[in-house]
Fold:
Amino acid sequence: MSDNNQTLFDRARQVIPGGVNSPVRAFKAVGGTPKFITRASGSHFWDANGVRFIDYIGSWGPMILGHSHPDVLKAVQDASLQGFSFGAPTQREVELVEFLIHLTPSMEMVRLVSSGTEAAMSAIRLARGATGRNKFIKFEGCYHGHADALLVKAGSGLATFGNPTSAGVPPEVVKDTLVLEYNSVDALEKAFEDHGPEIACVMIEPIAGNMNFVRASLEFMKRCRELCTHHGALLVFDEVMSGCRVALGSAQSLYQAALPGFEPDITVMGKVIGGGMPLAAFGGKRAVMEQLAPVGPVYQAGTLSGNPVATACGLATLKAISKPGFFTSLTQTTESLVKGLSDVAAQAGVPFCADSEGGMFGFFLLPELPTNYTEVMKSDSQRFNRLFHGMLDQGIYFAPALYEAGFVSGAHSMSDIDATLEAAKKVFKTLA
Structure:
């Protein structure tokens, strides 16, 4: 029997670099042939061979309602009939921004864009323009898109200037990027001690999803806020992944509950707020946001920003997840998956730990939850690859890399969770 996935992958590699339009899709980290998806519905999608999978990537986070949700489909279809793109303002983009501000009170004004990368690089430019400073801090293991200044890794010592991690990024472009260890208060304090008057902002994923699932500790987040305030730097929350995914009020609402008065200065959002369409945003206090053109000196623009079909998709998604009980149910389903996997691993004698918040989760083949990127990378990659392919063979689609978080949707049922755990019982026995 021919493998349509392999046939398509062979064709794709002739005309698309690596055969994919985003690197992790190529299965390079785990080996094997990627699945080419033909359709999706609810918590499932089907590949080119007609095989059905329970989907735990959800388009890498946006599909919080599951695929083809009827309310979202109708909103998109209605908007499409009115026109795909106008290059002019629409009422719906105003409504979407108003809804975002309602859900995220730290934002008083918002600018819509088309991707998380675009939102993050614009937020950095805005922070630099608003403060008149050049340097900024990011943390190892946090991914903020593929803008040149953000493609860096840490050097030696507590606080070092970044070195490019991609060809084509000149060293001078990242000379003002300071890369620190995630969750290290000592490194953070040292960086501000050495460079405080020059630091425009600290950019952080409050729950990092690109080193799997790692939370910023309360102590660390509190110190981020204190040092930014003391030195006149801006605190930028990258909630592209966690925004409206870990809670209706995003990750910042969780920190606000534990740290009264806490809030970031700028928030970057994407994924869920677009419902699967190319849409992202960055927002903050009015005084900061009014530094943007056309009212201020910081230039930012986008031909498709606030696209009328994308805003329809995003608005319908946000309205649906705002209904009473949605996040309570989503959290319970996700916790059932995480606890079940932990129990199965323990029964098989496989080192395993897991964590979740809302509809986002992560697991590690480690005895304890890691707190930074170095600890994450101690996970057994070869064993993970066997786990990934074993689950894939059982019809369960987890992220094809040990450093990517997973996602549960409102469409996932307890029968999906039960099927996943039954598959895990078989696979973990092979890993013991």
